[in-house]
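Q: Here's a chain of 577 amino acids. Please give me its 3D structure as tokens.
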Amino acid sequence: MQLLSLNKTFSLIFLLIFTFETQGEETVDIWSKDKATNILDKKKIEAKEEINSIELGNNKSEQSIEVIESISDKTLETKLYGIFDPDENNFNLTMWSYSKAGDIKEIISRIGKLKLSKSAEDIFINTLFSHSYLPKDMSEKNFLDIKINWLIKNKKDDLLEKFLNKNENFYNKEKIIQYLVDKSIAKGNIKKGCEKVNFINKEIKDSYLEKFKIYCLVFNNKKDQAQLLYGILKEQNLSDDFFDDKINYLIGISDKTTQKINERNLLNFYLSSVTIDNFKFEPDKNTKKIIWEYLNSVNLIKIENIEDIEKIKELEIAANQNIIDKSKIFDIYKKISFDLNTLMNADSLFQNFDTVRSRAVIYQKFLLSDNTENKIKLLFILKDSFKKEGLSNIYIEFMSNRLKELDKSKIPKNYLEIVGKNIISETEYKLGKIKYDDKTLHRSRVIKYYTEPGAAKEKIQKDLINVYKKIKRDKKYFFSAKDLVFVESLANDGFNIPKEIDYKTIAKKYNVPKNLLKLADNNETGFLALKFVEIIGEDEISTLDPETIYFITYILNRAKLIKFRNQVIISALPLRS
């Protein structure tokens, strides 16, 4: 019965291919299965690969047939949403098909709590956003939610636009468009926001986006078109009294508009700000974050009364939450007035003031000080004050920058260590220039096969023999875990390894997690890649210990995830300057 089902599958695929080929040519989305021939060819190839891997009596074979059948049954119903062709990262369309929905949700939730390193995030993005079938028991809606919510939470605006360009119609498309529109408005860049209107198609019936589309026509001086589209909006009952009032005023139908500020959403607030004479607004703790961002971008955050301590505290909280520029807080501190005697004795009198004024007087004393040791002491007093108030996010980078500006030769020796600990290192991870060392196998010129794309395999094979001859003369040479990584990968890629290197015996002393091996053997490549993302986590690959690097590459070889394996090799093995 199983083989008959497979024959039916291939017959259906052939019939569909033939049908599409006889139709007229048209532009298609290659990842939309109800439109494209490419995807049918791809499924046919993958199905053959699955059959070739089947062994009679093997549970895995039954599972493979079952998945192929279920995929075939849904050929005309399911669409594939992503950014990357799975082949780019050695995946296939069934990369999630053997994995449970609950397992995928749990690991993505755990990963979401980590501040991923650049290399870990790259693997995560390439994995989650490859086109694929759904995990077991997960709906299309849930899988899209996971993808979209991660992109929005992590502010991956470029990837969101790529997602829109790669996928025509999908659940919650309007959520991405509104996010991008609001980001543009919040930055005061209406022109860029209006460009996002092009992503809105007839399938999207969203009041917010339709209103913004109409405003964009007004913004671009196309009032006649705006009026026409506004009439359609009214007929569909998608407008409201506030928008009616504003758009009629902007088009020129009415010469008056309400002076009441509407904070219901960013578009309403923006329309209020551009239509109210002498617009003034004082945000508070209940003001939406996106509105704070807009006020900050267009320089509408002002303190009318510098003595209003409660208002300054609200601004401190907003800065700590990255809603407004942190520099604004220090600008405010400079404007608070103190007499000369207070400033001269600030480090002993600051505790007599409220928290805002105490920070202000210490900051002003810091600006006036020309003694390095005094500056350091004042910076640490400020650090304690911000920390006690739960406002450290305002100050960490500021303090680091001020410490970097100090003349190192003038920093007292007893302060050198603590100053160093409070300077933030460069956050961007950069690999240095490779230095080849033929005295160590995994650092030798042989590694050019991985670090220099296009290197001739024949030449690399000769280099391997020559380098090994040199190493063999060193009786004290230690064959390390990184050497093992290198040799196993070369063997996996078809190189002839010198017989004297008994790497299979050496490998027995290293442990490889059985749960990860099981994922590789079960073709759970998507879930496996996420497991490695979790293992790498906040570290860069180059900082992982050799044993971890070994079992990661061993399993990646087994799972045939060669691109990710090469990424590990290039990051972890070469000697760099």
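Q: Can you summarize the key feature?
A: Residues 176-257 form one domain.
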